[in-house]
From TrEMBL:
UniProt KW keywords: DNA damage, DNA repair, Methyltransferase, Transcription, Transcription regulation, Transferase
Protein name: Methylated-DNA--[protein]-cysteine S-methyltransferase
Annotated HTH araC/xylS-type domain residues: 36-119
EC assignment: 2.1.1.63
Amino acid sequence: MPPAPTLTALAPMEPCSDYDVVRRALEHLTTRFRDQPSTEEVAAAVGLSPSHFNHVFRRWCGLSPKAFLQAVTLDRARGLLRREDANLLDAAYELGLSGPARLHDLFVTHEAMSPGAFKTGGAGLDIRWGVAPSPFGLAVLAATDRGLCGLGFADDEAGVPDARDDLAGRWPAARMIRDDAHVAPYAALAFDPALWSSDRPLRLVLIGADFQVEVWRALLSIPLGRATTYGRLAEELGRPKAARAVGAAVGRNPISFVVPCHRVVGATGALTGYHWGLTRKRAMLGWETAGAGG
């Protein structure tokens, strides 16, 4: 487990309140996309002055609202795909990325739970779960004694039970124990770039069928600030005809954001679906774009 001081790293609720503004702005932009609304119009739609709106976005991701909204357009998604190396998995650690992007690639370690634990629905496992603030709303986290095994999201407290049940349903025979203090260090390491360090890795436990774990490991090789498609991911796994099966495994990823299924898009660059909502997927890609230096 990470050292105790990280327990308070995300204590302020400000990231969640900022995300609420970002979420409502993205929802407005999505419904009015063809009209190409100005940032002033979007600010008014979420009930903020342009200056306050600008302040919230810069605090949340370091970008102006205009720069962020440009970062989540279809053209931007296509650009992420064009920047992708031909052999993504082999090249991921040879890209010479610097700053937070490079750190993010290095600070996650993972292991797979035995296939038997998955087949029995987690029988005999004690999984501690809890809630913490994040840049993308409330994070609902689950962890065994060996590492983080689940991460989902809720827009507010009312959505927490559904997110918890979603995670618990993946391991129906496990014992789920509410323990916010236990999962707080995982949340801090997952969402605070200042804590990303290969000396203090975020430990993951992948609990799934063999093929699912293979796909989730491949997702971990997609660098921050880039994207791939389901078809390309299937090719990299040596299964070029299994794009649909790969897509299903991507959709069953239990550790959202950290295992970056949000970095997989359609062949045209369209964002397609996301288990925790397309608005949240857009927000994650924009937030990462800022962190990776555009």
